[in-house]
Write a structure and sequence with these properties.
The complex is a heterodimer of chains A (234) and B (200). With 234 residues, chain A is mainly beta. Chain A is built from 3 helices and 14 strands. Helices cover 3% and strands 30% of the residues of chain B. The chains are: A mainly beta (234), B mainly beta (200). At the A-B interface, α1, β1, α2, β11 and β14 of A face β2, β7, β8 and β12 of B. β1 of chain A pairs parallel with β12 of chain B. The complex binds fe (iii) ion.
Chain lengths: 234, 200
Amino acid sequence: MRIDSVPPWPEGIEPQVPTEGYAGTFTHTPAVPPIRRPPGRTELTAPRDLAAKLPCGDDNLAVLGHGRMALGQYIHIAGRILDEDARPIAHAVVELWQANAAGRYFHPIDTRDAPLDPDFIGNGRIRTDAEGRFGFFTIRPGAYPVPSKNNWWRPPHVHFSVLGPASLSRLVTQMYFPGDPMNAYDHILNSVPDAAARERLIARQLPPHEVGLGWLGFVHDIVLRGRAATPEQP
Amino acid sequence: MNRALPTSQHTIGPFFPRTYFGPTDHDLRRRTATATPSPRGEAIRIAGRVTRAGGEVCVNALLEAWQADAGGHFDHPADPDAAAADPDFLGWGRAATDAEGRYHFLTLLPGGYVEGNHRRAPHVNLQIMASGLMRPVLTTLFFPGFSAENAADPVLAMVPEGRRGLLLAQAEGDSEGLRCFRFDIRLRGDPAEETPFFVE
Ligand SMILES: [Fe+3]
């Protein structure tokens, strides 16, 4: 797939930086505004099949091995990776990572006193199919506190990293759960100024009878920057 | 034509899984983890440190590099000369910063290429993602020893003259037979020292 044009980020979708309540953004966000450059060949290209370099196929985070089920509420997250023409992006690499049911990451620098689950790592990587679809079995992550002075807790969320058809399609984002009362207090979700853009970061829950007995179903589409079609002239 | 609005970016956070870094992911010369590095060009090492406000080091940052092959080609349909691209060179790599904020890549010295009415100087695009960065930052590394090419590069020309030098890697001798280039990234600091970043 080839990206031919790239509209600038629409108003209100990019998070406000530095971000109120999130101290790290005040020490990391560049002080000088970035220079806007027209996308050239380096920006409009990317490896054609990154899955050869980044092995894909871990789509079940809830079952670590035979008979080893993670603690928590079993869920399935399904979605599509799309471009700005709403066309599916085949063979994108989708990475997903999350905390366990107690809100702790299986990561050496997460040293919080919440329990680790020996049967949950919480990292997966897959490649989208020809219709741009992806799916993961996992558990609903727990909320966790952020070390800070302002009693800030992250609501349950899943991190996504997507490597698409162009360098400028590269996306790092997070997915939230519908109806969670903590969503309203999160400094990261609320750094996105546009309410509709925030709403698009929240997955949709499927009615349980459409999913099956074993897990709860969520649907979440992700749109990368770039258009495959040349825009129609008005 | 249907339109869809792009999904908002977020920080990568502090817990990007270490298992996502394979032992050769930082080697742009390999198409797969175990492939032999492409020999078609001059193998080089690019290394540096990532710092934030106050010159403090940035640990666990994720860097991704993307560049043309030694002949200045991309194996991609957007390159009119894609058929001439090196079939063994990937041109993409990923690295994490260590406890001292250091990263490094192995690659081939990229070639320049003609695009439209311009000639692009040899360059490597870098994306940096980290806890505290709500949006990835994008920058482009240029090489010393290409003064005519660098002077004609349209992207470098967009950077205010006094800051262009910050995008120039520094030759730093040899290591294990490879020429080494140093490229430090200052996410935030005195505007005279902060790395110039781009947005598309
Ligand atoms: Fe998180």
